[in-house]
Each structure stands twice: as C-alpha cells, then as structure tokens.
Design goal:
heterodimer; A: alpha/beta; Rossmann fold; six-stranded mixed β-sheet; B: 270 residues; mainly alpha; 68% helix
C-alpha cells in the first residue's frame, strides 16, 4: 500500500520570491506515523505543511510554482483536499492548526466555529451538532455552544481551533508551532489534548515546533529540512538529536536537556539607587468593574532585574504599562526618583491647559522626556515600528532627543553591530523574521539609553538562539546599571536573570526580594 | 475591548426579536424607501410615533435601547437645526440674523428631516440590536441566496473588527513609548496616518492567516465543482415572519395616509 504522504522531488517557489521555499524533497510518511519537522528558519517547514494541507495552487492563477509531486493518499495534495470535501462525509485527509490563536477563529460563537468545517464538507445539519459537541468535549472545552469566542483565553482559543480541525476526523494532523503563543499552562494543556486524540484516533502527526522538549515524547521520527532544499537528517528522535544536536542548537532549536545557560543573576550588595516606586497603585480598565490589581507597593532599583510573573489576565501587562509611564494608574502613585528624573526639570514645557502634571509622574511626561528615561518593548514588535528601514528605525529615538547628527549615526551603527542587524540596515522592519524583529524592537528602546527598560514577554515565540542573545544582552545592560522589568512566563529567563520577582495573583502583588537585599 | 454595537441586547424573546433577520431587514428597507419619498412632518412624525409605540415588542432592555438611540439623537438634532437655519426659506420670517434666517417653512422642513432620520434609523437599530450577525449571515445566505463566500467572508471580517480595535490602542501606547506624539496638531495627524498604515499591515497579515485556516477546513473547495456547503443553523421564513412584514407594510401605509390626509405629503421628485 502506498504511504499516506509521499513527496518526490517536490519543490515550491512563491510568486514574488526568486528562491525556492522548498526544493528536491523526497519523503514518505506512513499512516499513523508521528513526525517532528525541524530546520532553520527559512527552510520551508511551514510551506511544506501548507502544501500537504492542499492549499498551494501551482496553476496559472496560483500563488507560486510547483515542481515534482506531493501526494496525499495517492492523489496530488490539492486534489485530495477537494475529493474529501466532495465526498460529503465530513472526513478530511489532513487538518491544519496554525500558530496564532487570535487569527484562526472564524465565527462569533464557539459551536458555530467548530461547525464551520463540517458545513464546508457538506455534512447534513442534523449530523453536524453531535460531532460539534464531541469535538468540543474531546479538547476539554466544556462550554455552551453559544459561548462567545471573544471571551476565550489564548489557550482555550487554540483548543477551539483544534476542535474545529478534529471535528473533520483528519488522518494526518498538521501542527505549525501550535504552542508558540501560549503560556506554559496553555501549551501543556494543548499538548496533552493532542497526545490523547492521537492515541484515540490513530491519526498521524506532522509537527513543526522549535520547543522540542515539550513534544519529544509524542513523536517517533524526526526530519530535519536543509535550508537549501532536501532533507538533512531523518530518523528516530534519539538518533537525530544525538547526531545533529550541535547543528540544531545553532539553528535555534530548543533541545531537551540542554542547559538554559549560566546563571547571570546579580550579585547582591552592589550599590543601587531607587529609580521608581509604585505607591498604593491600582491598575485595570477605567469605569465600572473593579481594577485587576490593587494596593501595589514596590520599588525598582538600578542594576536590578525584576521578573513580573503570574497567570494570564492577572494584570501583568497592565502593571508593566503603568510602570513604563504609558498608562496612568487607576489610583495610587507611580513616582520617579531623582536618579531617574535627572535633567527633566530644565526642559519641561508646561501645557497651556489642564492641571499642571506632577513632575515625578512618568505618565504625565512628554513622550520625548519619557524615551530617554524609560524604554518599553511590547510583546508584538510590529506595534513599535514607525520607520521605513532598520537604520531609520534606530535613529527615531535619538533624533527625538535632539542629538546632533554625528551622535545619532554613532549610536545607530553601534546598535546595528551589537545586535547583528548591520546586514539588514536598509531592510524594511516589517520584512524581518520574528527573531530579527524582536532584536530590533529591543535595540530601538536602547537607542535613547534609558535607565529603566520595561519588557512585555520579550522571549515569547523566540528560538533558542535569539533567546540566548537576549539573555546576554539584558545581563550586559544590567551590568551597566540599567534596571530591567520584564513581564514574563518564561521560567528559564527568570532562572537566568531575575533577582527580584513580582508575583501577581488574585488582584494583589507579592514581592520576592533577593536574599540579602535591604 | 468590544465595540459594543454588535452585541445583541434582547432581554425578552418576542415575535419581533425571534423573526427571521431577513424579515426584519425587509421591514427596515421598506420603511426607509417609503419615508424617503416625501419630506413632511406628518408622515415622518406618524411613523416615529407608531415605531415608538411598537418598540416594546422588540424585547429590548431600556438601558441598552437608550445607549443605542443616543447616537441617533446626536445625528438627528444637528440635521434638523442646520436645515432650519440654512434651508430654503418660505413663509413668514421668524428670526433673521445676517445670512441666517429662520422661516416657518424652513423650520417645518428641519423638523421633517430630523424626524425622518429617526423614523428610518429606529428600525435599523432594532434590527441590529435584536439580531446576531451570524444569524443575519445565515439568513442572507439561505433565504436570499447570497453567495456563501461573500457572507462568511463578511462574518469573519466582522469578528476581526474587535481585534483591530485592541491593536489600535496598543499602537497608540507603542508610539508614545517610541517618543512620538505630543507636539501639535500637524504632527498628530501624521502620527494617526502612521498608526493607520501599521494597522493595515497587521490586518492584511491576519486576513491571510485566517484565509489559510478557513481553506484548511474545506472553505471554498466544493465551489468549483458546484457542490454546495450545508448550513448547521437552518434559516427559513415562517408564518410569524409574514406577520412582521405585514406589520411593517401597515405602518408605512398608515404614516403615508396620515401625510396625504393632512395635505403635507408631496412626492419628493415632483
């Protein structure tokens, strides 16, 4: 019998690109096999999954050019997908789950969203709803069918998308970094559901994921794609990881059992000044409803690394925004101390209207006064990009400070080199890879040399290499006296750097100060 | 964050609230067309009175209704006032100050236009407030036979609006974090233009991912072969829907008859 998936000299080139995304691929995957797909970014892993799902159209009006053959169940992938739809049985050959939970929800109610695929497969309405209920039950979403999808957490949303895929009873599950945007609890829950469903249905798995440690027990074969085309390694998990470990680690793959890096926590006792204090601060949405966090009292000292931790929705990001002077607290005070205020009074301009802002309240500062004191790095780097090229992006902040042209150029070229962005100086920020965008967003915040840096999930979705670079960079910054506050779920990051931890839970903040601190 | 406009606000299930969305849409369109035929106080006023009298049948909560109609007052009052001040003058002059004259005629036209805005918008507000967008989509596709691709595309886009509202807020904060803003109106306009651009880039990216997710679940695959998709929520017209449409016809006829009897009704195009 022919394998479920067969590729022979398969290749794909997107229309606007000169280079092939995938080329010369030979591959057989039997029914029920569980394969982990690895490879450096740009090796064409996602393109392969899209191709297997039958979504690449190499025809005259298509999105690119196909070569060789990619067969699912003996038919070209695109044809296999269409046949499954026409059969009217509601059984798909493949089921694709993508990375971003927000971007995959189709409809406004939970039940309708799961039913969407069954409707497309022309399943009669009376047979749709039992299957919807089963699929929701299978992924552990015990919610009424009319529950609004807008009220789901990221982890729930991703399980909803999985329910929509599983309702079609696919023979091969295609997962494209399904946990990259989930918190650790959400990621583990999703992995467990996938494991349970694979065991129950006997379906196969083709998984793209750089957090190998989470999935390693679930797969029985690893396939490494070569960036130039073809397969670099193919075999059992143990053998491939042992033989290719260094190569994979260099390509940014998270391998199980590899140390997260040296402990770089600050040595207690170094001279520290208070930069910022939170005094009885409450944060959250204004208006009706109580704030998410109240009675927050804490200090940020120079040369410290504070990890802001807690489950999703506990108010981490909101508190980070208040500490960064971007959003005023609902009540209480965020107070900048002289070490952070230095140089502010001389350049202050008073507003002609409204009450005069309190000089030590960062939320009342003019934007240009803020950037030289507090740098912020958002979870999605794209939100922060305002210029046409990488070099221009780095120059924005220093120019806002009114620095001379030579000084601006010096800072830009120094950062370009330090963060390995020099080759990309003339590229558009939006065209960079995820890791490059993250490095650039951190670099833009550093260009104005702030004394306090506030980061929201800086390591979210990053590969092992970018992760290690970030840790080095942040450790170096702290060494020069910069204070870092990072809202994060990343236990490895906290282990490597955090000397103080702010835990948020049940509307309160608990400070875990370093041993031996005043 | 939610834009709130699309949240259903029904607190009691009534014949009107339960009616097929297409029936409600037909009534709203019928009233709009009939009221656009003539600008007169009596027709528009009668329509508004009848609509207000029938409003309890919509099953809406008082608070939700006030919140939704507040916007209506904001639109209708200025339209009425400007027409009264600047509209074509006729009849005795009531007030004159420079180029602005208020005459009995312009005052009447102003009132008529203001009332007309209310009379046309109220059924629309009731339609939106009592109808879930998904149900409207189902009805448009199954009763009106609009193409599934169009209807589901619009529904998916609707859902993305709330997400983009959140992104917009983030963009504002992120730009302050970059040191932008806070220097005058012109820079402010440029700043908004920059935010709009980034929002578009993000929206296009999101739409591409959503399209992939939808196609992976079989969306659009049967189309080429002429195979139809099914609908999990059957939507069809029932006898009670005929009642709702008949009510709408009666309302439009009564308002027009009142205008004709009072002698104020005049076909706009003549």
């Amino acid at each position: 019998m022919a394998p479920l998936l067969r590729a022979r000299g398969w290749g794909w080139r997107w229309n606007a690109r000169r280079a092939h995304a995938v080329r010369g691929l030979d591959l057989d995957v039997e029914a029920g096999e569980r394969v982990l797909l690895l490879g450096a970014s740009g090796a064409g892993k996602s393109t392969l999954l899209t191709g297997v799902a039958g979504l690449l159209d190499g025809g005259p009006d298509g999105t690119g050019e196909e070569e060789g053959e990619l067969l699912v169940d003996g038919a070209p992938a695109q044809r296999a997908r269409q046949r499954a739809v026409e059969a009217g049985e509601g059984r798909a050959r493949t089921g694709l789950l993508l990375q971003d939970p927000q971007a995959q929800t189709v409809l406004a109610r939970v039940g309708d969203d799961v039913a969407f695929g069954l409707e497309n497969h022309a399943v009669p309405p009376e047979r749709i709803w039992p299957r919807v209920d089963d699929a929701l039950d299978d992924v552990g979403l015990r919610l009424p069918r009319d529950h609004p999808t807008a009220r789901l957490s990221g982890g729930q949303r991703q399980r909803l998308a999985l329910a929509g895929v599983l309702a079609l009873q696919p023979q091969l599950l295609l997962l494209d970094e399904p946990t990259a945007m989930l918190d650790p609890e959400g990621a583990t829950a999703l992995r467990d559901v996938v494991a349970e469903r694979l065991a129950a249905t006997g379906a196969g798995l083709l998984l793209v994921e750089h957090r190998v440690d989470l999935w390693v027990d679930l797969v029985d074969r690893v396939l490494v794609l070569a960036p130039g085309g073809g397969v670099l390694a193919d075999g059992s998990v143990g053998r491939v990881l042992a033989e290719r470990g260094d190569e994979l680690a260099a390509a940014g793959v998270w391998l199980p059992g590899r140390a997260a890096g040296p402990d770089r926590r600050a040595v207690p006792g170094a001279p520290e000044q208070v930069l910022l204090s939170l005094e009885g601060v409450a944060v959250g949405r204004r208006g009706p409803g109580s704030p998410v966090l109240t009675g927050v009292d804490a200090e940020v000292r120079s040369g410290s690394f504070t990890a802001l931790r807690g489950v999703n929705g506990a108010g981490k990001s909101t508190l980070a925004l208040a500490a960064a002077g971007l959003v005023p607290p609902v009540s209480g005070r965020v107070r900048a101390h002289p070490a952070l205020l230095a140089g502010l009074a001389a350049r202050r301009r008073r507003r002609p209207w409204g009450s005069p802002p309190v000089a030590d309240d960062p939320a009342g500062w003019a934007p240009r006064d803020l950037v030289s004191r507090v740098g912020s790095v958002f979870q999605d780097p794209r939100h922060q990009f305002v210029a046409q090229t990488v070099a221009e992006e780095l120059a924005v902040g220093p120019r806002r400070l009114g620095l001379a042209g030579a000084e601006v150029d010096a800072r830009v070229s120094e950062l370009l080199e330090r963060l390995r962005l020099d080759r990309l100086a003339r590229a558009n920020p939006f065209t960079l890879s995820g890791g490059e965008q993250r490095r650039l967003s951190v670099a833009t915040a550093l260009a104005t040399r702030p004394r306090l840096l506030v980061l929201d999930e800086p390591t979210f979705g990053q590969d092992a290499r970018t992760w290690a670079e970030l840790v080095d960079l942040l450790a170096g910054l702290r060494g020069t006296g910069t204070a870092v506050v990072a809202a994060t779920h990343d236990v490895d990051l906290c282990d490597a750097l955090a000397d103080t931890t702010w835990w948020v839970a049940d509307g309160r903040l608990r400070v875990e100060a370093p041993v031996g601190a005043p | 964050m939610s834009t709130g406009l699309l949240d259903p606000g029904v607190v009691r299930s009534t014949v009107l609230a339960r009616a097929n969305p297409v029936a409600k849409l037909a009534v709203a369109l019928l009233l709009a067309v009939v009221l656009l035929l003539s600008v007169d106080v009596v027709t528009a006023g009668t329509a508004v009175l009848l609509e207000l009298a029938l409003l309890p049948l919509a099953g809406l909560g008082v608070l939700g209704l006030l919140r939704r109609t507040a916007l209506l007052a904001v639109a209708a009052v200025p339209v009425a006032v400007f027409t009264a001040l600047l509209g074509a003058d006729s009849g005795p002059v009531l007030l004159a100050a420079g180029p602005v004259t208020v005459t009995a005629g312009s005052l009447q036209t102003g009132a008529a236009i203001g009332l007309r805005v209310v009379a046309i918008a109220l059924p629309g507000i009731v339609l939106l407030a009592t109808t879930d967008p998904t149900d409207l989509g189902d009805a448009l596709a199954q009763v009106c036979r609009l193409p599934a691709r169009f209807v589901l595309g619009a529904l998916a886009a609707f859902r993305v609006v709330d997400v983009l509202a959140e992104e917009w807020q983030q963009l504002g904060l992120a730009r302050r974090a970059r040191g932008l803003g806070g220097d005058g109106l012109l820079a402010g306009v440029r700043d908004v233009a920059g935010r709009v651009f980034v929002l578009l880039v993000i929206a296009v990216r999101r739409a591409a991912v959503l399209a992939t997710a939808m196609e992976a679940r079989g969306f659009g695959a049967g189309e080429r072969q002429g195979a139809d998709r099914t609908w999990a929520r059957p939507s069809r017209l029932r006898a009670s829907d005929a009642l709702v449409v008949a009510g709408g016809v009666l309302l439009a006829a009564t308002a027009t008859a009142a205008g004709v009897l009072a002698g104020t009704w005049q076909l706009l195009l003549t």
